[in-house]
Amino acid sequence: MSAAGDGSGRMVEIRGLSKSFGDLEVLSGIDVTVEAGEVVCVIGPSGSGKSTLLRCVNMLEVPTAGSVHVSGVELTHRDVDIDAARRMIGMVFQQFNLFGHLSVMDNVTIAQRRVLRRTKGEAERIGRENLAKVGVAEKESSYPPQLSGGQQQRVAIARALSMNPEVMLFDEPTSALDPELVGDVLGAMRQLAEEGMTMLVVTHEMQFAREVADRVLFMDEGMLVEQGPPSQVIADPRHERTRTFLARVL
Ligand code: ADP
Ligand code: MG
């Protein structure tokens, strides 16, 4: 487990984060802290701003107001080296975004070589380690279209891990998968959590959130409505909006 760079134990610190698209405010004054080694799951209805929140953490969306620190580095600072800052952050999307014309091994080594300037041998060693960790070691010579969705998503996780991120962001990583393939991906994520990876996970998998999350955040209409341990937010929510949402998904 890596400690946050500023020594506070805070890996991700989001303060007063707002984001508008034109007149539409999709995030309103969000405050979230993720401690080093913590797993935080974000739940909430479609359109509540979950993806935008995650995208603001690595500046795929530029916040309208507020600040984001990752490992002590302010990504919202105008002088930040954004490419260097983003290297601390791994992101896994609903759509795996693998290169279909590249082998699995090339998919997991290309950024290591281009961005981190690792040699082919070093990148392959690290890639192989991470492919093994998520259970797809035997697929290194295959091409993404030859793999199941669950295998492709695990390759995407291995690719992100191979960059040695300090924190991993997951945006509904199992939502595009056939139900029978969801378990393998959640299993890989659970193992990662047990190894101490700091994780911010948008998910509709309540069982995963209940069992793996240290904390659950419920978002609605761009606001953080409530947060707490899963035993509270999922099992005994305080807010009516959380109850209404859970009644629909559980
Ligand atoms: P969630 O992930 O919770 O479903 P999103 O963060 O994707 O929600 O979206 C929140 C709101 O922001 C939605 O109303 C969505 O239509 C809007 N939105 C997201 N991205 C954009 C964009 N690039 N331009 C305009 N509106 C957007
Ligand atoms: Mg989303």
Automatic annotation (TrEMBL):
Q: Which GO terms describe its molecular function?
A: ATP binding; ATP hydrolysis activity; ATPase-coupled polar amino acid-transporter activity
Q: Which domain of life is it from?
A: Bacteria
Q: Which GO terms describe its cellular component?
A: plasma membrane
State which residue ranges cross the membrane: none
Q: Which PROSITE patterns match?
A: ABC_TRANSPORTER_1, ABC_TRANSPORTER_2
| Broad class of where this protein is predominantly found | membrane
Membrane topology note: Peripheral membrane protein
Catalytic activity, reaction form: a polar amino acid(out) + ATP + H2O = a polar amino acid(in) + ADP + phosphate + H(+)
> What is the top EC class of this enzyme, as a single word?
translocase
Recorded hits in Pfam families, A to Z, give: ABC_tran
> For this protein, what is the EC number?
7.4.2.1
Report the sequence similarity comment from the record. Belongs to the ABC transporter superfamily.
- By what name is this protein known? ABC-type polar-amino-acid transporter
What is the native source organism of this protein? Haloechinothrix alba
Its organism's taxonomic lineage begins at: Bacteria, Bacillati, Actinomycetota, Actinomycetes, Pseudonocardiales
